[in-house]
Amino acid sequence: MNTRQQLSANGPRDPVPGLAVFPLAGRQGVRAAGEVGLTTRAIWEGVLEQAVREDEDVYYLELSGVTFVDVAGAGALAAAAGQLSDGRRFVVNRPPPALRRTLDLLWPGQRGIEVSAS
Amino acid sequence: MTTAVTEPFGPLDPFVHPAFFYRDEQDYLDGTLPFVREGLEAGEPVAVAVPGKNLVLIRDALGDDAAAVRLLDMREAGRNPGRIIPGVLRAFADAQPAGRRVRIIGEPVWAGRSDAEYPACAQHEALINAAFRGRTATILCPYDVARLPEHVVADAYATHPTVIHPGSRAARDSDAYAPEDVVTRYNVPLPPVQEALTFAFDSDSLPHARHVAVGEGARLGLVGVKLDDLALATAELTTNSVVHGGGSGVLRVWAENGYVVCEVRDDGHLGDVLAGRRPVPRDQRGGRGVLLVNLIADLVRLHRSDSGTTVRCWFAR
To answer: Membrane-crossing residues (chain A) (predicted)?
Structure first.
């Protein structure tokens, strides 16, 4: 096979993108930056487990700095939303397109998730 | 063949899955309209998922009754044959009250399906039997015998336990019914590719694999949702390789006939013939990666061999 370009996982590369999480000021929730995938899944799930244990009606996930969420990451959010007590919800601000797409296709109308573009 | 591959094809009852052969529009309406009307009269949920031109025929002939039928253009909803079971057939059937028979007309094969698509169509037709066995449903599959090649009609005898001939409404047993053979026969190595961007990945380079695919997809002309979908598919397939497929794999991306194609190959063995075709219960964690790929790609082809698994997916530019 001719390859136009042969890249290797063993060659020089940029640092692996991580996931950084910061508490929000003035409201309950976090701002996250980076990517949600296999390598950062534990961080993301930790955030969601903590969120389920909180007591405010709304838990904000500010995701404008998140560039990608994989299906397992979307599934963790859907599962956490399903565990929220009645009347509680996640407000997901400015999620990456992949998260919207996955939620629409695999968890349409999931209780406890409100997606916000602002 | 392993037990895991053959086991899903047991007795179908009460599931009914006839192929319906037609030669022209009159045959088509004579075979499909009574099927729909009998369902409506019995209070059964009815869906029709056929190519747009045939959908218009049925819709117009039904008149006001069309409002009670779920109508889908199979050229859109079923462009990827791997999407049809989870995204069309089971999506409709599973949403109906339990115990009531569900009627669906599903036409996944039409003249003009490409050589790349057809093996996935034949496997899909065979796998309907595994996905619906034991369920109270009837799926009638029209075949345009005037325009489809002979081998396609021969395959319909192998993927359907019964067959209805033009001018007849009676289903006759197919002597050639052998769905597991069809799944195996079309499990063929995917056509070689002359030139492709190639990236070997492992757990440390998973995010890079996705970035490489997205960069190449954009360079080859994918934009917007299609580019997002390429990112999702690449992430799910490469993650599967790392978690279930031996810890590493090879990603390739290239352009082909108006599509960007992404392929992931690894050393894993995918035993489940219905992988990515079952709807997943809402409360189940995990197991949705290949399902999502089937829902978003324009075509998915899979090759399972002793040395590993290759998944190839097409995204229209």
So the answer is: none
